[in-house]
Design goal:
CATH topology: TIM Barrel
Number of domains: 1
Structural class: alpha/beta
Number of helices: 10
Bound molecules: zinc ion
Radius of gyration: 25 Å
Order of helices and strands: HEHHEHEHEHEHEHEEHEH
Distance between the termini: 85 Å
Shape: elongated
Strand content: 5-15%
CATH class: Alpha Beta
Number of strands: 9
Strand order of the largest sheet: 1-2-3-4-5-6-9
CATH superfamily: Homocysteine-binding-like domain
């Protein structure tokens, strides 16, 4: 699976260990995390596809209970589990730790404490990305109710206090429209760190699914996309790539796909990103060329005027 995404043009693979937690897997959690990290590393180092040196593996630090269940409390027990998961991932030399689909800043604080403990005990200094799941509406709020920007700022403050290198923040696992609504605030609070965005591709939103399950989570009207963007309930790769390209233009620096996306979505994003990059490079060259012309005109203009004046004098004589 990782190889399929890398072949489609991905730069980063997340370890396939989202449910490898004590809640879901009991004592098998850590061995499963280790195995998942090895699989991702093997695919990243594969020489079958171009540019293996550019590929990164992000070690998943997932929610520790049911996905989307809001965890509002600081918990030393949760921090101790994150410490174990961070150990296992760092032992396999992942490039970055990725705490994803978090619902609340307290959950991020548990992650940060766990990563800090892992660093202190084993001397790891891995960068951490913290990514929250948004409610599928246009409020810019997490499923736990905090505004995304406020939760991110709290995570940054907690990381500062703990001496943890929080090098990226962002949002994931939500409707693309929810990202559109929250992105400007996220970019502003990120202050130059990586801005990470990966949304879901399902036409029926997670909030609607949770409601059916008797677990209502969000505040406003669900953000549904244009029905023409979907086939069989899933956003088409081209439509998703157009959304992703707009996030990149608006300041997202790490853009990917969450639930419902496939290697075809990654490939469509890659094609569009490369085209966008070529276009901005061309505009850069064009600007440089115009500036050079302006400088030359300024430098040579007086000399040219003098030469013309001299010629006119000679002609008159
Ligand atoms: Zn997801």
């Amino acid at each position: 699976m990782h190889e399929a995404f890398f072949a489609a043009g991905a730069d980063v693979a997340t370890t396939n260990s989202f449910v490898a937690t004590p809640h879901h897997a009991g004592d098998r959690a850590v061995p499963l995390v280790t195995a998942a990290a090895r699989c991702a590393q093997r695919a990243a180092r594969s020489t079958a596809q171009p540019l293996p040196a550019m590929r990164k593996v992000a070690g998943c630090l997932p929610p520790l209970g049911e996905c989307y269940a809001v965890r509002r409390d600081r918990s030393d027990a949760d921090a101790a589990v994150y410490e174990q998961l961070a150990f296992a991932l760092a032992d396999e030399k992942v490039d970055v730790l990725l705490a994803e689909t978090l619902t609340h800043s307290s959950e991020a604080a548990n992650v940060i404490l766990g990563v800090k403990m892992a660093s202190l005990k084993r001397g790891y200094r891995l960068p951490l990305w913290v990514v929250f799941t948004l409610a599928d509406d246009a409020t810019g709020r997490l499923r736990g109710g905090e505004r995304a920007a406020i939760a991110i700022q709290r995570a940054l403050d907690a990381a500062d206090g703990a001496g943890v290198l929080l090098s990226g923040v962002g949002v994931n696992c939500c409707a693309p429209g929810a990202v559109d609504a929250a992105l400007a605030d996220v970019v502003e609070v990120a202050e130059g760190r990586e801005v990470i965005v990966y949304a879901n591709a399902f036409e029926s939103t997670t909030s609607e699914w949770l409601k059916k399950e008797g677990r209502p989570d969000c505040c406003g009207t669900p953000c549904r996309g244009n029905p023409r963007e979907y086939v069989d309930g899933v956003m088409t790769p081209d439509a998703y790539a157009r959304r992703a390209a707009s996030w990149a233009r608006r300041g997202a620096t790490v853009v990917g796909g969450c639930c419902g996306t496939t290697p075809a979505h990654t490939k469509a994003c890659r094609v569009l990103f490369d085209r966008q990059r070529r276009r901005s490079r061309f505009l850069g060259y064009l600007t440089f060329f115009v500036v050079v012309l302006a400088v030359l005109a300024r430098a040579l203009g007086p000399a040219l005027a003098l030469a013309l004046a001299e010629k006119r004098v000679w002609d008159e004589l």
